[in-house]
Amino acid sequence: MNEQAPTTRTWARVGADVYLRLPLRSHEFLKGVPLHDVWQVRLPGGGPGRTLADAREALTGDRLSAANPAVRALFAFRRWLGRLFGWDREPPRSGRGSFVDRLTAEDRERTLVKPGTADGPFTAMYAFPDEAVSEARNATVHAFLVYALESADDDYLLTWAIHVAAVSWLTPVYMALIGPFRRFIVYPSILNQIRRRWIETYGERPG
């Protein structure tokens, strides 16, 4: 991945080291699952003491899929293909099971969202005040979204990492086909949506 400085614009695709330097539970929880992408978006202001829950409304599956008309069309097209080819069925039995079994007793005590709760097309694994992981399993991928929020001067930085494990020969083909759409349309639109919702709620700077 090519590293870009997130301060040069409001969002950017960044290097794996930006994500890996963060002291997150996900590094151990998702051990062995390839890291596919890392993005960051700067969330201005917000005041002290904000947590990931404060941005969660903009992170829900419904909000993400409604980011803009192009993204809605792509999500609808993907659902149509899923029905046509059976992509949204459970992955082959030879694949990994849900990572919910990796949760420790401490994870279950700390999480603010019950493991297994639906999160749009994903399933919540855990949601801590500064970190959350959701999982999706189907016939194309075994994917995970990781969100992490940290304070940065008077603002906040939201780091968004995507881990993807192969479930069959279809996974690399599928990821290669959707790659340009994800990186040039879907992800930028979603990050802009998250930032816009944050500003609507909290304003540019603490008041």
3D architecture notes:
By secondary structure, the chain is an alpha+beta fold. Helices cover 38% and strands 24% of the residues. The protein is built from seven helices and seven strands. The protein has helices spanning 16-20, 26-29, 52-59, 61-65, 69-85, 105-110, 170-202, and strands at 11-13, 35-43, 118-119, 122-127, 131-137, 142-152, 155-165. The chain has a seven-stranded antiparallel sheet. A hairpin with a 2-residue loop joins strand 6 (142-152) and strand 7. Helix 3 crosses helix 7 (170-202). The longest helix has 33 residues, at 170-202. Residues 1-8 have low confidence and may be disordered.
Features:
207 residues; seven-stranded antiparallel β-sheet; globular
Extract low-pLDDT stretches. Answer: 1-8
Percent helix range: 25-40%
What gap, in angstroms, lies between the N and C termini? 37 Å
What Rg do the Cα atoms give? 17 Å
Per-chain topology:
Layout lengths: L10 E3 L2 H5 L5 H4 L5 E9 L8 H8 L1 H5 L3 H17 L19 H6 L7 E2 L2 E6 L3 E7 L4 E11 L2 E11 L4 H33 L5
Provide a compact summary of the structure:
This protein has 207 residues and is an alpha+beta fold. It is 38% helix and 24% strand.
